[in-house]
Every structure is written in structure tokens, then in C-alpha cells.
Specification:
It is a single chain. The chain is an alpha/beta fold. The chain is built from twelve helices and six strands. Helix content is 38%, strand content 7%. Strand 1, helix 2 and strand 2 form a beta-alpha-beta unit. The chain is globular and about 60 Å long. The two termini are 37 Å apart. The protein binds 2-acetamido-2-deoxy-beta-D-glucopyranose (6 copies). One 2-acetamido-2-deoxy-beta-D-glucopyranose (NAG) binds next to loops. Belongs to the 'GDSL' lipolytic enzyme family. InterPro entries: GDSL, SGNH_hydro_sf. Pfam families: Lipase_GDSL (PF00657).
């Protein structure tokens, strides 16, 4: 999914830049993934910059490769898949640009930057770095479905996606990572872009929240990923692997919208979009283009631009990652 959400990220970050925070053991965040990671990093830093983790804004690597990365670096790229270009092309998949920005590519960028990140730091270079791996998988599934694969065919790639994420985590551990947050996959079938582009005439393809079931591929990926995290945690006891969730909180928002402050009649409607109900999503009239307006009360909306959630939703998720219940263990439990 190629979308610009820079405006959204800046919107979250800007008012909070430059505000100091309490000390935590983390001095930097290094993150990998797709645009959800971009935002997660933003939200974590934003929530924290006032009081929690005490970290500055994390600059994106691709925006300026010579930026000051002493507080961390964000390698995540909008549209990035977990699977690399060679693999996807080998499977005859349509690959949406930007290409060569997969997790494997991001890890290569990290390895290139490592000497400068670790300059003068000694052996324990990443001892106080919080690594964030994911969300990943959404763009792979987008690629499979855009390549006219059936949902069952798409589901068959899930173990390969989980292998790729798992290999990525191991690679970070081999570079000295001591704290790795591994995020699960969002309920892909609840995103307005997916609901619009892959709409089905068969009611049985939708769940009770109105989301596309997609052969339960996101649930399957999250299940396999959780199993894999347990295996990795046993294999590498001196690294803390934190399993973080997007899936469960988003389903909770859909299940009890008003409990979380959302308007129950707009949970599947794009706030900043066009085209009207049921999803208010039109890929040619994307949020950010002239004339595309945000809804009247974004703080009561769940879906921002058809691909990403609203600030209100990210704030709740970030809070659940920091304090629980959406991270195991909660990040703040290991931060001090
Ligand atoms: C980089 O940022 C850190 C704070 O995160 C600061 O202490 C340091 O002086 C900066 N380095 C340069 C070269 O600007
Ligand atoms: C590309 O992905 C495949 C399958 O996940 C993997 O076997 C291969 O090593 C990857 N290539 C690179 C250069 O990372
Ligand atoms: C990809 O397409 C080529 C040419 O049609 C075909 O020979 C090959 O078997 C396909 N590969 C896969 C994995 O489907
Ligand atoms: C993508 O990466 C592959 C492998 O490194 C390379 O062969 C290819 O030229 C790259 N494509 C682009 C457009 O950069
Ligand atoms: C997928 O199928 C649609 C409708 O049959 C067709 O228009 C489109 O070109 C196909 N896309 C690919 C990548 O095969
Ligand atoms: C929820 O949104 C609908 C559609 O925009 C609106 O008509 C309704 O007044 C909103 N409900 C509340 C409680 O704000």
C-alpha cells in the first residue's frame, strides 16, 4: 500500500517535539517495518517524550541518511513488505513500489549504519536500544491479492512471512539487540482500502464487524508469530522479546466502539477520504490531495486515511503497549 502519511505523522509529533521527559533505561529506538511502524514509533516517542520513555523523535533513515541518529533511527518504509523483491518476483507477484524496501533491505541499511551508530560505544552498543520489528505482512498480502491470488493462496505464504520476520529478529540479536518489540499484523480485512478494492458479493466473506475474513490470514500470521516469539525467547534468554499487538486492540475498538470513545456508525468509514459510505474510500482521491477533507470529529473516528488509523486509535494502542494489556511484557515494565 503506497500512501503518504507523513502529514499524519508530523501532525502527531510536532506539538510534542522538544519537550523533555523522565529517564528510562532506553536511550534510543531503532525500528523496522511498514508505515504502521513509522506511526508506532511516532506515537511511542510522542507519548513518551513528555513523561514515559524520555526519547526524542526518531528520524527516518531514508529522509536523511546523515541525520543525527543518536536517539535512534526509523528504517520503516511506507509500503514495505516482509518478503523481498527477489522472492516476490520469483512467485510472479505484482510488486507495488517502492521496491527494494523490504525487511531484508532495511536490515542491510541497518548493518551499513551500525559502525556509525556504535562509534565509541564499546561492545554493548545496543544495550539500551529498544528495537521495534513490525508491523509487517500487510503489504505482502496486498501484493498477493493484487496479483489475483485467492485468499487461500495468499494464506499459504503466511509461514514464509513469519520466517522472514523471525530471521530478522535473530539478525538483530546477533548484532547485540537486548530489547526487541515484535508487533503483530493489523486486521487487514477491516481497512477501508482492502474493503473497497477486494470487496466480495458473498456475505459469508465478511465477519460480524463487517471486515473481510480473507481466510483468517491475519489471525493465522499472528498465531504463528506468537509461537515463533516463544521459540526465540527460549533460544535467546539474554534478549527480552516483547510481543506487541495491533490486532486485538483494533478488534476491541470494533467490538465496543463507544467504550473507547469512537462513533459506532463510522468505524469502517475513512475519516479523511471521499466517496461516501460504506467506506468513504476512493484510491484516486486520497487524503492529502487537494479537496479531500477530514471528517467533522476525527477524535471519534477509527480509520484515518483508509490505510492507517486515527491519532485517537494509535494513542490507545501506544498506551496499551506501554502499560499493557497490548504488549507482553508491557514496555514500561522493562524500561526502568
Ligand atoms: C545528536 O543528538 C543528541 C541528543 O539526542 C545530542 O546529545 C548530540 O549532541 C547530537 N549530536 C550532534 C552531532 O548534533
Ligand atoms: C529473500 O527472501 C527469501 C525468502 O524469504 C530468502 O530465502 C532470501 O534469503 C532473501 N534474500 C535476501 C537477499 O535477503
Ligand atoms: C511464474 O511464471 C512463469 C512464466 O509463466 C512460470 O514458468 C513459473 O512457473 C511461475 N512461477 C510460479 C512460482 O508460479
Ligand atoms: C533491487 O535489488 C536487487 C537485488 O539487490 C537488484 O538486482 C535490483 O536491481 C534492484 N532494483 C532496483 C530497481 O533498485
Ligand atoms: C487480475 O484480474 C483482473 C480481472 O480479471 C484483471 O483486470 C487484472 O489485470 C488482473 N491482474 C493481474 C496482476 O493479473
Ligand atoms: C456518529 O456519526 C454519524 C455519521 O456521521 C452522525 O450522524 C452521528 O451524529 C454521530 N454520533 C454521535 C454520537 O456523535
Amino acid at each position: 500500500m503506497r500512501t503518504s502519511h507523513t502529514a499524519f505523522l508530523v501532525l502527531i509529533i510536532l506539538p510534542y517535539l522538544g519537550t523533555g521527559g523522565a529517564q528510562s533505561k532506553f536511550t534510543s529506538i531503532i525500528s523496522f517495518g511498514d508505515s504502521y511502524t513509522d506511526t508506532a514509533t511516532a506515537v511511542l516517542c510522542w507519548t513518551s517524550s513528555r513523561m514515559l520513555l524520555g526519547l526524542p523523535f526518531v528520524p527516518p533513515y531514508l529522509a536523511d541518511r546523515k541525520a543525527n541518529f543518536s536517539g535512534g533511527v526509523d528504517f520503516a518504509v511506507v509500503g514495505a513488505p516482509a518478503l523481498n523483491l527477489t522472492y516476490l518476483q520469483g512467485q510472479n507477484m505484482t510488486v507495488n513500489p517502492p521496491i527494494n524496501s523490504s525487511l531484508d533491505d532495511q536490515l542491510v541499511w541497518f548493518e551499513k549504519l551500525k559502525p556509525s551508530l556504535c562509534k565509541g560505544q564499546g561492545a554493548n552498543c545496543f544495550g539500551s536500544t529498544l528495537f521495534v520489528m513490525g508491523a509487517l505482512g500487510t503489504n505482502d498480502h496486498f501484493s498477493f491479492l493484487s496479483s489475483n491470488r485467492t485468499v487461500e493462496q495468499a494464506r499459504a505464504y503466511v509461514p514464509t512471512i513469519v520466517d522472514s520476520i523471525s530471521r530478522g529478529v535473530e539478525r538483530l540479536i546477533q548484532h547485540g539487540a537486548k530489547y526487541v518489540v515484535v508487533a503483530d499484523m493489523v486486521p487487514f480485512g477491516c481497512l477501508p482500502i482492502v474493503l473497497t478494492l477486494f470487496a466480495s458479493k458473498d456475505k459469508a466473506d465478511y465477519d460480524r464487524y463487517g471486515c473481510l475474513k480473507l481466510a483468517k490470514a491475519p489471525q493465522y500470521q499472528n498465531y504463528l508469530l506468537r509461537q515463533r516469539i516463544k521459540v526465540l525467547q527460549n533460544k535467546y534468554p539474554s534478549t527480552m522479546i516483547i510481543s506487541a499487538e495491533y490486532y486485538r486492540p483494533i478488534i476491541s475498538f470494533l467490538h465496543m466502539p463507544t467504550h473507547f470513545g469512537f462513533n459506532s456508525s463510522t468505524t469502517l468509514l475513512t475519516c479523511c477520504g471521499a466517496g461516501g459510505p460504506p467506506y468513504n474510500f476512493d484510491s484516486s482521491t486520497f487524503c492529502g490531495l487537494p479537496g479531500v477533507m477530514a471528517c467533522a470529529r476525527p477524535s471519534e473516528a477509527l480509520q484515518w486515511d483508509g490505510v492507517h488509523l486515527t491519532e485517537a486509535a494509535y494513542r490507545l494502542i501506544a498506551d496499551g503497549w506501554l502499560h499493557g494489556p497490548y504488549a507482553d511484557p508491557p514496555i514500561l515494565h522493562v524500561a526502568h
